[in-house]
Amino acid sequence: MSLFSTPFDTARDTALVTGAGNGIGRAIAQALVGEGVRTVFADVSAARVEAAIAASKRPELAVPWIGDLSKSDACDELLAAAQAGLGDITHFVHSASPPRREADHALGVDRRTWQEMHAVNLDAGFHLARAIATDLIAAKRPGSFLFLTSLHAGTPRNLPHYSTAKAAMAMLVKELAKTFGRHGIRVNALVPGAIAAGGFVADPALARHIPLGRLGEANDLAPMALTVLSNKLSAYVTGAAFVVDGGLSLTNWFEPPVLDG
Ligand SMILES: NC(=O)c1ccc[n+]([C@@H]2O[C@H](COP(=O)([O-])OP(=O)(O)OC[C@H]3O[C@@H](n4cnc5c(N)ncnc54)[C@H](O)[C@@H]3O)[C@@H](O)[C@H]2O)c1
Q1: Where in the sequence is the signal peptide annotated (predicted)?
Q2: Alpha-helical segments (H) within 35-193
């Protein structure tokens, strides 16, 4: 059996993807059910979840969950629904994130927007991961978690609520990877560049600064996500951050050389 033909144990592996209604989360959730993994599609938008599942290759493997992860009770409700639908969750992807609005710069962002950004990205990510890990440790089962962070965990975005939430998530990945590693639970970060996926309204002119010459698409992230999530393909990988940005983060004030001929 080829390594790449069976990245998951579809009899035992189960997944929970937040933000599965749109963009990168949607692409990853759809790819997981496409590989035969039973997956909870969690999102605040019922219409988006319904459409994402309907457009999946194997809709019968998808379990919808609708709720607002900025609310503290929502994580418990999601975990109970996931357990009822699929049993223990072995693979967790945290992609949900509120909309990014350019008006929410340092002088513009209000307290509610600040708190919501941190609540969904950081608080929900932590509470869900800890609860899922607690069950896996008790059951002596391996697991794999993936957090969608950002290049703006390390460089400003003019959206301080967003960049600080992502910077905290990047450290959370390392904390959890170190703590859960000896229990066979791997925790990694996926770091997208400029992905025209819904949450980022892309200016096509940006492509000029990307070495691979184009903006990214949500489906550019899914193969790397599944590779890192797979306990077969990435068994010895934890606490790592995988940048999928077409080379955008290599760009600085030096233009690349012009190569003639
Ligand atoms: N698109 C990019 O260029 C880019 C770049 C870097 C990082 N990221 C990160 O990748 C992830 C996905 O980005 P995207 O652009 O695909 O996002 P998106 O906006 O297209 O999708 C985010 C999803 O999260 C859901 N969501 C928002 N608030 C929620 C809440 N309170 N409870 C539950 N669900 C909620 C939305 O309904 C939406 O379906 C995010 O964490 C984002 O920060 C994206």
Answers
A1: none
A2: 46-54, 72-86, 111-118, 124-139, 160-180
Q: What is the pLDDT of residues 158-173, one digit of tens each?
A: 999 999 999 999 999 9
Q: Which two structure tokens, joined as six digits, stand for 106?
A: 């340092």
User: To test ligand 1's pocket by mutation, which of 30, 40, 41, 97 has the most ligand atoms within 8 angstroms of CB?
Assistant: 97
Shortest-distance Cα residue to atom 17 of ligand 1: 199
Cα 230 from Cα 13, distance rounded (Å):
10
Residue 7 dihedral angles phi and psi, to the nearest 5°: -70, -20
pLDDT of residue 261: 67
| Domains of the chain: residue spans and CATH | 10-250 (3.40.50.720)
**Amino acid 204: pLDDT:** 84
CA distance linking residue 144 with residue 210, whole number of Å: 30
Torsion of CA 132, 136, 138, 139, to 10 degrees: 140
- Reported residue count of the chain is 261
Q: Extract the residue ranges of the chain whose pLDDT is less than 70.
A: 1, 261
